[in-house]
Amino acid sequence: MALLEVRNLTKFFRGLRAVHAVSFDVDEGAIVAMIGPNGAGKTTCFNLVAGVFRADAGEVTLGGRKIGGLRPDQVCRAGIARTFQVVKPFPQLTVEENVIVGALKATSGVAEARREAARVLALLHLDTKAGEPAASLTLPERKRLEVARAMATRPRVLLLDEVMAGLRPTEVDEMVGVFRRINAETGLTILLIEHVMRAVMALAAHIVVLHHGEKICEGTPEQVVNDPQVLECYLGAEAEL
Amino acid sequence: MHSSAQTRRAAIALLALLAVLVALPAFASAYLLSAMVLILYFAYVGQAWNVMMGFVGQLSLGHSLYVGLGAYAAAALYVHFGVSPWIGLWASMGVSLAAGALIGVLAFRFGIGGVYFALLTIAFAEFTRIGFDHFDWVGGSGGFFLPVKQHGVVDLANLRGPPVMFYYIALAMAVAAFVIAWRLRVSRIGYYWLAIRENEDAAQALGINTFRYKMLAILISSAMTSLAGVFFAFYYNNLFPEQIFSMGRSIEIILGPIIGGLGTLFGPVLGAFVLTLLGDGLTEVTGALGLEIPGLKQVFYGVALLVVILFVPNGIWPAMARRLGFGPSKGSK
């Protein structure tokens, strides 16, 4: 049984079918990528898993436990942490305080949360910024702060929503290195939405492709890039593929 | 982040201030003492209000509701049944907690925030005021009066006594409120509150039950504020719905923390000092010049607010703390 199982997930926004009958598995310790053109329903999928929206049909289970219908805070406490595509830092708090808020979920008190925050910040190369207000960070730094905050909750599954967007190629490689290391060292399961194919190809052993709210293909990176349907939906739009 | 040296310096300054305040009645005039009572009163309610606005970002413009309910509950029990205010204050807190819980559930369960939350708090204060205008058991619009016994005899059990007794009670309340706000601020609750203030969606995504923590804030704030009402009732000995529940009173409560520094621990204290001393000083000076200008204090409050928002939008304390080398206070961001 997979750690995270998504079955037949469906969501309508009025008449718009944003996500339709999407099913996939994320195995424990795996890194799975979700790709697809803009508007394919990737972020909606994330929001359904994270409890922001309630699904019209379908079920999500984490380690065998149904988590459909839970509030975002309950989903987080169940073990799924997420980042936001449009970053949502706590601007007036310091970088350290931002991460302490996340770390408090899995720690007994503020002192322990502060130590945990320091550890996570070092992992994401934000330790030199610890005392600065989050509002002063650059966008790539804010993306890393999102990751740090989510990781500090010690999740079983980490949902990353376009954390590579806007990074330079060297920065992408650095982030890829960070996630690889975390995955290898702690066995953290990662599900990521990503447009930067450089990162997807380097990280994911398994890729799910969405188009118009439906899953059109899934498999290894080789299988996916050679799939005629995938090539068709990406044609012209994403030259990198 | 603040170094331990900064913390030590701030602690020493704080203790020195406390020593001066404790010794003050020995050399202060009756006038200064009454001004100080007012300052400490505003420092206390400012701190209570700051828990909601400064820490959790929920703007209450109806805190006079809790002052009024607290005042009337303890006063009515005392006048009608001879119940000591030390027992009555529990009833005051109970009534205010109930009101706070009702407002909180209505607002936070149904996602009412920002300016709509503010309107809801005004509405509750206003219709409670109108209700008390017709509440004859406590005097209605004609006012409710506490018996004034021999002045000068300290009767702490019934809160009857000279101004100096009230001064020390107000001082104890202000200090207690400061300590409570500080302990909350540096605890898990404080971090969660600030997170909700800064970005509620992100806070929830990190596992914070935002409804529960917002409820906690309104309950703590309303209970604390009701005790200010008990103090008010036994200090002034008269209560009028038109005054105690008025929106003007709510505004007076919030000016100190805004001018001193929202979300900081020293802001409400500093704001209370600045506003009361300058406001009273202004009326004294114009009075000495033979000028009776009605509403002058309100105009001064308006100007003070304007100046602060223009030049130190985060309040006086954060700017002052940097100058004094205290760094950002523990209470500030």
Mean of pLDDT of chain A:
92
What share of the residues of chain A does DSSP label as strand, in percent? 15-25%
CATH superfamily of the largest domain in chain A: P-loop containing nucleotide triphosphate hydrolases
What is the architecture of the largest domain in chain A at the second tier of CATH?
A: 3-Layer(aba) Sandwich
Which strand order spans the largest sheet of chain A, edge to edge or round the barrel? Answer: 6-7-8-3-9-10
Low-confidence stretches of chain B: 329-333
Helix content of chain B: over 70%
Number of helices of chain B: 14
| Overall 3D form of chain B | globular
CATH first level of the largest domain in chain A: which class?
A: Alpha Beta
Greatest interface (CB-CB under 8 A), with counts per chain: A-B, 33 and 21 residues
How much helicity do the residues of chain A have?
Answer: 25-40%
Return the structural class of chain A: alpha/beta
> What is the average per-residue confidence, as pLDDT of chain B, rounded to a whole number?
92
Please indicate the count of domains of chain A. 2
How would you characterize the overall build of this protein?
- The complex is a heterodimer of chains A (241) and B (333).
- Helix content of chain A is 37%, strand content 24%.
- Chain A is an alpha/beta fold and 241 residues long.
- Chain A has two domains: 1-79 and 156-241, Rossmann fold (3-Layer(aba) Sandwich); 85-154, no CATH class.
- A six-stranded mixed sheet of chain A has the order 6-7-8-3-9-10, sandwiched between helices. In chain A, strands 2-1-4-5 form a four-stranded antiparallel sheet, with helices on one face.
- In chain A, helix 3 runs parallel beside helix 5.
- Chain B is mostly helical and 333 residues long.
- Chain B contains 14 helices and two strands; from the N terminus they run H-H-H-H-H-E-H-H-H-H-E-H-H-H-H-H.
- Chain B has helices at 4-23, 30-56, 64-81, 85-109, 114-133, 163-185, 188-198, 200-205, 210-236, 241-244, 247-260, 267-288, 296-311, 316-324; strands at 144-145, 238-239.
- Chain B has a two-stranded antiparallel sheet with strand order 1-2.
- In chain B, helix 2 packs antiparallel against helix 9.
- The longest helix of chain B has 27 residues, at 30-56.
- Classes of the chains: A alpha/beta (241), B mainly alpha (333).
- Chains A and B meet through helix 2 and helix 3 of A and helix 7 and helix 8 of B.
